[in-house]
Amino acid sequence: MSQNAENDEMPRRAPALATRLSHAGRPQDASLPFVNPPIVRASTVLFESVGAMQGGKARYVYGRRGTPTSEALCDAMTDLEGAAGSVVTPSGLAAISVALLSVVSAGDHLLVVDTAYHPCRHFCDTVLKRMGVETEYYDPAVGAGIAALFRPNTRAVYLEAPGSLTFEMQDVPAIAAAARARGIVSIMDNTWATPVFFRPLDHGIDITLLAATKYVGGHSDLMLGTVSANAALWPAVKETSGSLGMFTGADDMFAALRGLRTMDLRLRRHQESALAVARWLQGRPEVGRVLHPALETDPGHALWRRDFCGATGLFGVVLAAPYPSRAVAAMLDGLRWFGLGYSWGGFESLAIPADVALSRTATRFEAAGPLIRLHVGLEDPADLIADLQDGFRRLTAVAAAPADETDL
Length: 408
Ligand SMILES: *Cc1c(COP(=O)(O)O)cnc(C)c1O
What we know:
Layout: H1 17-23, H2 50-54, H3 68-81, E1 85-89, H4 92-101, E2 109-113, H5 118-130, E3 134-138, E4 154-160, H6 172-181, E5 185-189, H7 194-197, E6 207-211, E7 225-229, H8 234-244, H9 250-261, H10 263-282, E8 287-291, H11 301-307, E9 314-319, H12 325-333, E10 339-340, E11 350-354, E12 371-375, H13 381-400, H14 403-406
Parallel strand pairs: 2-3, 2-4, 4-5, 5-6, 10-11
Antiparallel strand pairs: 1-7, 6-7, 8-9, 9-12, 11-12
Helix pairs in contact: 3-9, 4-5, 10-13, 12-13
Residues 91-93, 117, 160, 164, 189, 191, 211, 213-214, 223, 225, 343 line the site of pyridoxal-5'-phosphate.
């Protein structure tokens, strides 16, 4: 895998991502000649002697400090993100808190994109506020203009692209470069694209995190997060994660590794099917706007095209008119293939009615009608389109009926 190329006449090209997904984090230990690492459930690690215990050289010291299973997943994420190191956390939200706590201290100013995942905002507005960190939300369209928001005590800039629920793109390299020029740390939530379609560290970001719950796991059966950092920030991330006692169960880590192996394949199918559904939605009279950066008409399309190499299955649909909520409920309640549920990134399609009013303070999201978020799963897109077509029939029928007839 990593043979050196000294004797080769031509420099060997770096392996492509699909190749790395199949090999990253695989055991290198000849005494364990299996394709996959063992599922090691462990707290206590036994030492051969007091000397070995006190020598500080043991590879494993305690369950929470690392096992062959956690090493396999962390090594894989480090490879895929192009990082210096990675940690696992019990959820994506815990990855957010570890990344932020690795960097900010009392008295610091933190810039967070206004379209960040809502529980991230909540963490900043409660825990970080209590610790004396001041969070300021910024417009995702700020680009290099972020520099105007820097204060002498600005410690970090937090990005997420495309944004949660409304899918605005960000000029990641411009923001990362402005931050680095001032010694400010940049952190990015890369859950939507995953390293398959975007590698934040290659674009100047210092710390990248994922809700591995979503596309890494890929099967809606686990909660997990990962944080990966460049060489400058890795010691802080490792130390903070360790101090907070972040770790997670061996079975979940193993399931995440299993998910990784098929991630390229799954994401390409999510991408293709989501675009088919999104393009069909664009032609519907009930739809005002489809929020999906891979659509040529999307305001974020140029940035997406420049920086990302693919799109996943999650996007938004703004209805064309202020349909009453009972009509939207009738549309969604009757869906056959789309489940009603939070999270996304599994093999199944999902829909939620989305309300962003309370999650925006620096910007306003303007929409002609209600917003629905769709996750397009691995079903045949023709079935999903037929399901949505029936849904639009319910939407317009209920919207046209007098309110008291349908309030039953
Ligand atoms: C779901 C999500 C998270 C949180 O992940 P959990 O594993 O549910 O805690 C973080 N960021 C984004 C963008 C998400 O969609």
